[in-house]
Amino acid sequence: MSAIAWGASSSGTEKIATVIGWLFTSSGCGLLFGAPIAGAILDATRPHLTYIPIMEYGGATLIIAAAALIVMRVNKGLKWERV
Predict the structure, then answer these.
(1) Is the residue at 30 inside a domain?
(2) Which positions, given as ranges, span the membrane (predicted)?
(3) Cα 80 to Cα 83: distance, rounded to the nearest angstrom
């Protein structure tokens, strides 16, 4: 659902396939590299295995991604309005 919403709101209907393709590609990169990175972080917490550093890593990447989207939206000059 988020890919459809982003595609419809960002570039219009003429480029929706390209936008959705890029969204799925970026999601695929996160899925491909996220698990090995989480495993490496978990291995680094031995002998007391804890998932807190993995949650912190996930939260940090989420905040960085949100900031990047805000910067791109501001640079593109899009107005903030309700859809």
Answers:
(1) yes
(2) 20-42, 54-72
(3) 9
Interatomic CA distance for residues 41 and 59, integer angstroms: 14
Tell me if 81 is assigned to some domain. no
In Å, how far are 18, 20, 21, 25, 34 from 15, measured between CA atoms?
Answer: 5, 9, 10, 16, 29
Q: Determine, yes or no, domain membership for 82.
A: no
Instruction: Say what the pLDDT of residue 12 is.
Output: 62
Higher pLDDT: 22 or 45? It is 45
**pTM of the predicted model as reported, rounded to 2 decimal places:** 0.68
The predicted model gives 50-54 an average pLDDT of: 93
In a domain, 55, yes or no: yes
The pair of structure tokens assigned to 32 is 């491909």
How many domains would you assign to the chain? 1
